[in-house]
Design goal:
Blueprint: H1 9-59, E1 66-71, E2 76-91, E3 94-107, E4 110-122
Antiparallel strand pairs: 1-2, 2-3, 3-4
Length: 125
């Protein structure tokens, strides 16, 4: 009869396998958390870009209709679409238009932010 105490080789291998599996799960969880944090930061930056472009479009005194695209920081692309969606009857010889503005910010093919606004402004003939 053996009176020695200790772990057998099989018990040690099983314990290491369980610890390895637990470590792998922990790494997956941490990796997903970091990835989610990076994506959230990119979306926040894209939303700030979209806000900035929309505010810029809202301050232009006369709004031409059309679509414009450009490159922003950190591989973001932006697109502004301006549409005249209605006009008011002329008053004192001036035409007032009701405009719809859409601002989209993308990174590659992925839309990260989209904002829309409406505004009355002098109609561009």
């Amino acid at each position: 009869m053996r009176s020695e105490r200790g772990f057998t080789l099989l018990e040690t291998i099983v314990a290491l396998a369980i610890a390895g599996a637990a470590l792998a799960v922990l790494m997956l969880v941490l990796g997903g958390t970091i990835d989610g944090s990076v994506r959230a930061g990119q979306r926040e930056e894209a939303l700030e870009q979209a806000r900035s472009r929309l505010e810029m479009a809202l301050t232009v005194p006369r709004l031409p209709t059309g679509q414009w695209e450009g490159q922003a920081a950190d591989a973001f692309r932006w697109r502004i679409e301006m549409r005249l969606i209605g006009t008011l009857p002329p008053s004192e010889g001036r035409h007032v238009g009701f405009y719809a503005m859409d601002v989209t910010v993308l990174r590659g093919p992925v839309v990260l932010a989209h904002l829309a606004g409406r505004r009355f402004a002098p109609a561009v003939p």
